[in-house]
Amino acid sequence: MDQLRAGLEDFGRRDQQIARYVIDHAEEIPFLSAGEIAESLAVSGAAITRFAQRVGFEGYPHLQRVIRQDLRATLGMKQPGSEDSVVARFWASEHANLEALQDIPEARLLAFARAIAAAKQVWVVGARSSYGISLLAETILASFRPHVRAYSADLLLSRPEQLLEVTPQDVVVAFTLRRYSRATTRMVRALHKQGVQVLLITDQGASPLSKVAHQCLQLPTHGTDVLASLAPFVSVITLLASLVAHELEGGHLKQAEALNADFGVYEY
Length: 268
Known about the structure:
The protein is an alpha/beta fold. The protein has helices spanning 2-7, 13-24, 34-41, 45-54, 60-75, 86-101, 106-118, 129-141, 153-158, 182-193, 231-248, 251-262; strands spanning 122-126, 148-152, 171-176, 197-202, 215-218. The protein is built from twelve helices and five strands. It has a five-stranded parallel beta sheet, with helices on both faces. Helix 7 (106-118) packs across helix 11 (231-248).
């Protein structure tokens, strides 16, 4: 990115156009073909290849590979900084993230909840750290409606026959968090081809699933030195479950609580 910015003023008009697109969409480049960029800019695919070569790469795949490596370096786990202000900075960033959640339009949250409430089955998909979020979402949502199940995207890829269970009346709630899992991208796109409605809950980056998502919630996940914040995901999952319960008037929860009492699940 620094190389492109430094040479921007020396490029020709078309190369400037391409360079600005690459700079503005850096996080999407690893998932975009030269043809997709060319279509967006109304230029030929060959123009993208020639641009990559003129700025010092073997071709577009080489440029794409270098950008992917840069993103991995900058979006991965950072080294911890000094210890003296870790606690204060942590709480400050958490507070800012939770405040920013209030900017999500209520209508968008209601649309999400209604799609979950109306679905025949809810597939909750994530990988790595996002799979942990998926398990939490399954636990909370399953209290309020039946047929909710969390899936590891990696395990689904190893057992694609499970896609035979999909119906067009289902929804998939996909969680993505940088660095975006290739397994999640492949599996959710496969579910999308099966006619499933895709509900994406992601961070403030450029998730590769944003193009196939029917609805998308982008959450602020600014962390401190080491990790992105997961608190916004937990808050939004809890809120969506409350909205789902309201949509379904709590019927499933009442039945579940009666069964819990019959089986003596809880001490008190």
